[in-house]
Specification:
mainly beta; six-stranded antiparallel β-sheet; Glutamine Phosphoribosylpyrophosphate, subunit 1, domain 1; 237 residues; five-stranded antiparallel β-sheet
Length: 237
């Protein structure tokens, strides 16, 4: 698979929707996880990321303008022991609760489907990082309709062991703008991952379409001592 320039990939797509990036920094010493949200409607754009424990949640920037919390208010990032869960919806809670009861990532997602936002049927994308001594592995999942037919849910999981320094994978909800919005297709994209965190965050944020971007979360985890660095960028301030 051809390795893509993450920032060029984003800047060439006005509406990738919501996206998850997971990989290993070029220094080889840090795991990287990022999640961003975009929006076309006033309701979707009226959001910010706020920290909650070791994770984050979405919140209405102006509560008086919130018209429908369904599908837009949720916890995208939660931590369960040595696992970091990142998703684009309330399936974060499903994964957290079921894995806490010893079910697997895949088993938890078999209980869920794509979003009920006809005619888009937005895919549910999810990622999980599992940390061990001096190393980590990760997996990504997408739950999508059968080319817009909601009678069939198609589930795909991709696992990555011993991630290579400077490489990661990027999965997002939409191939681009449209009506209905076209769902992501194929495997997660192989992309370059580099640091340090502030440079990576700035480049990622600046690559997102200015009109549609809403919020960005980035975390670097040191694989030697487990220390974390987190950055949150919100368009609404």
């Amino acid at each position: 698979m051809k390795k893509l320039d993450l920032f060029q990939e984003l800047s060439s797509n006005a509406y990738p929707g919501r996206g998850i990036i997971i990989g290993r920094c070029s220094c080889g010493k840090k795991a990287v996880a990022a999640y961003f949200i975009m929006g076309r409607s006033e309701n979707s754009r009226n959001r910010v990321f706020i920290e909650e424990g070791k994770g984050i949640r979405t919140e209405a920037f102006d509560p008086s303008k919130l018209t429908d919390p369904h599908l837009i208010i949720y916890a995208p990032v939660r931590q369960l022991g040595n696992k970091l869960i990142v998703t684009n919806g309330d399936q974060t809670d499903t994964i957290y609760e079921m894995m806490d009861k010893q079910f697997t990532f895949e088993q938890a997602l078999r209980t869920r489907e794509f979003e009920d936002d006809a005619p888009n049927y937005t895919p549910r994308i999810s990622g999980i990082l599992r940390f061990e001594k001096d190393s980590f592995n990760y997996a990504m999942s997408i739950l999508k309709s059968a080319n817009g037919d909601p009678s069939s849910c198609q589930r795909y999981t991709f696992s990555y062991n011993n991630p290579i320094a400077g490489e990661g994978h990027f999965i997002h909800t939409y191939m681009g703008d449209g009506s209905p919005l076209p769902s992501f297709e194929g495997e997660p994209k192989l992309v370059e991952i580099s640091g340090p965190i502030d440079e990576f965050t700035e480049k990622l944020w600046n690559s997102l379409n200015e009109d549609n971007k809403v919020s960005l979360f980035v975390r670097f985890v040191d694989l030697e001592d487990g220390s974390e660095e987190t950055r949150i960028v919100n368009k609404n301030k």
